[in-house]
Each structure stands twice: as structure tokens, then as C-alpha cells.
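C-alpha cells help. Consider this.
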Amino acid sequence: VDRVLEDGDLVKLGGVILVARRTPGHTRGCTTWTWRTESGGKTYDVVVVGSPNVNPGYRLVDNKEYPEIGDDFAKTFEVLKRLHCDVFLGAHGGYYGMVEKYERVKKGTEANPFVDPEGYRSFVAQKERIFRDALATQRRATAAAPAR
């Protein structure tokens, strides 16, 4: 590791300037990357989502090892909702339908399916609902548990 990146830090890679967006929760160091690119005379905002997933077994309430996990996830969704996204990518291809979109690109019969701002907004909204539901369920369970 050369340095720990902070939210908004720039990383230059070839002719591209990537912006690190701190999106913790899944892990403390989870990062979403953004940059701008041009294609066909148009400029596009690219977003590569780190991970907004609440995996099975994640403790969002009373987590002794990561007490701020719930707050971090909430902040992550605020960041993701503020980002302007034309081209939706992610840490895992399943987030954005990589295989299906690539097959559509190979056919060459339509506009670039990776330009998918609505898919991005839908993905973020779905993952936030899952987080909010898990948080509410865990809060109820904690409140209902007998005191020790």
C-alpha cells in the first residue's frame, strides 16, 4: 500500500483520472470509483460500485467489532444516490448484468447497454431497501431480547 485513500482522492491511471468515493459498510475500506469518459462525441460519468451488500450474518446493530457499520451503510447510500451515473459498472458483474449486456453489445443492434443510469438508480434503491429492512429487523430483535 502506497497510501490510504480518502474520500475524493484522485488516482491517475494512464489518461484517466479516477475519483475514490468512500462507501464503507460492507467493509470499512469499501470504495466506489468514478471517472468521466468520452465516446462518440459524448461525455459519460462512469460509476464502479464497490459493494452495498449486507451479507448474511452481518450484524448491523450492537456490532462490537464494527460499531459504526449501520451508520457507514447509511452514509454509503447517501453518497451513491448523489452520484451522477451514465455507465453503471460494479465490483461484481452481477451487479449490473455484465454478461447479458456484453451479449447485447456483441449483437450490435442497439445503443450501448452499459449506458444504464436507470439500472444504477434501481440497483442502489434495491440495495438500500435490503439494508433498511435488515437494520429494522435487527433493531426489533435487539429490543425484544431479554436484558443480560
In short: Residues 120 and 126 are 10 Å apart (CA to CA). The chain has four helices and five strands. Strands lie at 10-13, 16-22, 31-39, 42-49, 87-90.
